[in-house]
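Structure first, sequence second, as always.
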């Protein structure tokens, strides 16, 4: 279905519902999607099996939008800034406290905050299509959960470029952006892809504590602290624990050091303001959290993904990296935890502190 003058209406609807950026990409398969297939084949996705979802023919769903949504003609990509006025992880030097990734602090789960807004744009689209053509209109809104590599379409929608740290970066807004997409059967005139502005910079590669950025634009999730702290179940490989530092959930380092985030603006919506205690959280608080406290603290929060056992395991490792022997009593307790990954991490941490 080709309907003229939709672009401007969609973009103004996106601004009205609170998105900072909105662009339109063609629903065609970009070359970056081949890289995605190669990345999966190299095992760089670790245990994130959802990224390897395949169709009946055995092909990766995320590698071809044409295969999973042959009706789609355009992809509307929206982005919202979640940067709140709190220091970057690289500016806070307190090893006795942990670090939770900036995106996960928020009052409202970003999936809900973004999807709610996308639905409003979908409604607006539907209202714009004449009654006799409603049956032809198909739209699907996704935040992280769709069969689509959002940042690739964000690039072709002109939202930003994919940096050497593999994050989507906008020249004016930086990279603290949540992305949401609407696939649509509407034929919309696409925006121009955003040019790469990384230039000769390699700050993110140099700053990564676990050498997870193997080469520019190439991330091995198996080594990335974000993957290790959130997605990895069971024990974390010992050779990566020291590099994890005080990270409890996610890692912001390669974005904190990015020059394009130096003057990143602050977000306007209040729902991305942090919940109490999540900026620089106390390690002992996290390690000793009961099931009920965990449920209350992280209700409708992306942090639930790591599960209580993952958070306590990560807190034990962070204590081991703190250099502070006052954590020894709590580590002693954790060494007897019924969850083996916690007990084993606590024993590792204890040994590390005792060697000081
Ligand atoms: S998130 Fe952290 S561990 Fe992962 S690539 Fe960036 S700096 Fe490295
Ligand atoms: S730190 Fe430099 S190389 Fe890395 S993403 Fe930012 S601009 Fe690109």
């Amino acid at each position: 279905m080709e309907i003229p003058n939709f672009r401007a209406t969609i973009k103004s609807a996106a601004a009205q519902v609170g998105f900072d950026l909105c662009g339109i990409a063609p629903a065609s398969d970009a070359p970056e999607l081949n890289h995605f297939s190669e990345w999966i084949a190299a095992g760089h996705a670790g245990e994130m099996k959802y990224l390897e979802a395949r169709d009946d023919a055995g092909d990766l769903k995320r590698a071809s939008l044409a295969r999973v949504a042959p009706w789609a003609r355009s992809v509307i990509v929206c982005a919202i800034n979640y940067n709140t006025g709190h220091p970057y992880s690289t500016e806070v030097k307190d090893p006795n406290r942990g670090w939770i990734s900036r995106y996960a602090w928020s009052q409202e789960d970003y999936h809900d905050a973004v999807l709610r807004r996308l639905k409003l744009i979908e409604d607006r689209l539907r209202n714009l299509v004449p009654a006799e053509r409603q049956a032809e209109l198909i739209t699907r809104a996704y935040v992280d959960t769709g069969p689509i590599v959002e940042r690739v379409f964000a690039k072709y929608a002109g939202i930003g470029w994919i940096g050497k740290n593999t994050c989507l970066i906008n020249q004016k807004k930086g990279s603290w952006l949540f992305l949401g997409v609407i696939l649509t059967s509407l034929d919309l005139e696409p925006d121009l892809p955003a040019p790469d502005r990384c230039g000769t910079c390699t700050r993110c590669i140099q700053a990564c504590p676990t050498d997870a950025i193997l080469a520019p634009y190439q991330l091995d999730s198996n080594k990335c602290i974000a993957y290790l702290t959130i997605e990895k179940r069971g024990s974390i490989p010992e050779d990566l624990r020291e590099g994890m530092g005080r990270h409890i959930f996610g890692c912001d380092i390669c974005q904190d050091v990015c020059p394009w985030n130096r003057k990143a603006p602050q977000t306007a919506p209040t729902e991305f303001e942090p919940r109490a205690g999540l900026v620089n959280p106390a390690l002992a608080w996290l390690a000793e959290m009961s099931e009920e406290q965990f449920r209350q603290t992280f209700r409708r929060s992306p942090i639930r993904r790591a599960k209580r056992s993952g958070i306590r395991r990560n807190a034990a490792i962070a204590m081991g990296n703190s250099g502070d022997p006052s954590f020894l009593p709590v580590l002693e307790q954790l060494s007897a935890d019924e969850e083996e990954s916690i007990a084993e991490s606590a024993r590792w941490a204890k040994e590390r502190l005792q060697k000081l």
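Margin note: The chain has a mean pLDDT of 93.
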